[in-house]
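B., you asked whether I could sanity-check this one before it goes into the benchmark set. Here's the sequence:
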Amino acid sequence: MFLRHTTVRRGAKTHVYWNLVRSIRVGGKVRQEVVASLGRLDARGPMRAQQLADKLTGRRCEPSLFEPDDIDDGETAEIELRKLRVERSRRIGDVYLALVLWRALQLDQLFDELIEEGREDVRWSTLAAIHVILRLCSPSSDLALAEDVYRKTALEDLLGVPAEKVNDDRVCRALDKLLPHKPAVEQHLRERLGELFAIDYDLLLYDVTSTYFEGLAESNPQAKRGYSRDHRPDCRQVCIALVVTREGIPLSYEVFDGNTVDVTTVEKIVTTIEARFGSADRVWVMDRGMVSEKNVAWLRGGGRRYLIGASKSELGRMQQRIVEDADWMRIREDVEVKLVPREGGDETFLLCRSEQRKAKDRAIVERFGARLKEALDRLSARLERSRKTVDRAQVERQIGRMLERNSRVADKYEIVVEESAVRASGLRLVVRENESWVARSRALEGCYLLRTNVTNWTEAELWQTYIQLTQAEAAFRVQKSDLQIRPVWHRNEERVQAHIFICFLADVLWKTLEQWTRRAGLGDTARTVLDELAQVQSVDVVLPTTDARELRIRCVVKPEPPQAMLLERLGVRLPRRLNARRSEVSARV
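And here's what the prediction gave me:
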């Protein structure tokens, strides 16, 4: 990796911006990829980053645990340099940063208070840290965590828990201890994150996704087949409803049966949030999958404010207002909006029209339309070639299956099965394009409709707020891709719930790191930072002496310059040396 700068002149001033760049080979070519944008690298940036690091860590991960012993008995030894060797290489950079995040959120203290101490060899709060940190840095199954992943990291030294103590049984039993404290943990995180980042909870974004199981999961009553967002209808699943802030930080979640319809989850989620965090004057933002007149009436009847995507049928009724050129307001280069007050004055509709979405909608219609037309043409050709009578009901069933597979354009063609005396099949297929449907489809391309009872926001504020639903979608993407919440290998309902809870906590750490990297001038580079720091290793340097002894020093390999720069921008100082004897004191073995 290397640094590359760009010079930008604004008037009489010249600004130099730096990027951290690495070369990667793709096929037979080498191309350069930006790892992180470091900004201007002036003194103000590192100062802000260090101030935030001090606030996050409270200096709790600073050297007291890791510095070498101060004991000096004056003994000297001669070293046989030819026999010097390096052993026990372990990843430390990423897990150390994750431990800083864990302690920054004060989750170590919280679990120590919540889980009563017993006669266990390893504290359950420590096992909770192991679960979440490795879910963030090296997501895997619990079996892999116990047998392989943990021993390849320096967590043994950082937490003082020997690898042989982290076994499959203990790892799984830890899940049972953590789950009952979910409400208390969510309440604690809301307060702690609010302290760290001044997060405002006046706006909550809500969405639903699903995650599937490997196997039948017959012992879990929530595991059922339903609409799969993972495109795995062959697998049983559970649905996860997630509430996040406008910054995308997870606030709470609930797990529903796998066949739950999105629209039926709204009342439970809203009442749960209000019971846990109070019924403050907040705005709920949801997509159109949550919309029903019953839900809207319930929200409005409870005095709640909302901004939700309206159904396609409501959009269709707005066709005349869409084609009118008057009253449209351009709020972005490719986005126009129009306010449409509803009769009675208790609600307002916001028509939105996007050029990018228009191109996407047209491409979808053309793709499905071409596929349906091709299937109909093949059916027509078979009827023409057939040398025996064809059952009309069978043909109509085939057409029905085609329309079901291409429901997006089911009304694009008028399809008639006619009697034909000149064909051996006795039937012929007549397909005509439905011009009124095509005209309506073209008019609605790129358009969507929002409905709200918020009266004091401008058109731009309404649209920008609704677009923030992408934060909830991004949270799901992180859980599924970076944290690998799927597939679920557990069979027991409580273990499945605990697995999702661990992923939720790892997501909170992820979002905390994103807030940190953003304020440090690195952008949204959480995964890049973790991947780069994962290359920083701790090793044992073994020094054989001339009198047949061996001196073993456990130290941290000096980071490469780009990794050191990332650490500097974050305001984090890695330990230079690990003291195994001191670190073992914290384990209750």
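One thing to flag: Residues 62-74, 580-589 have pLDDT under 50 and may be disordered. Otherwise nothing jumped out at me.
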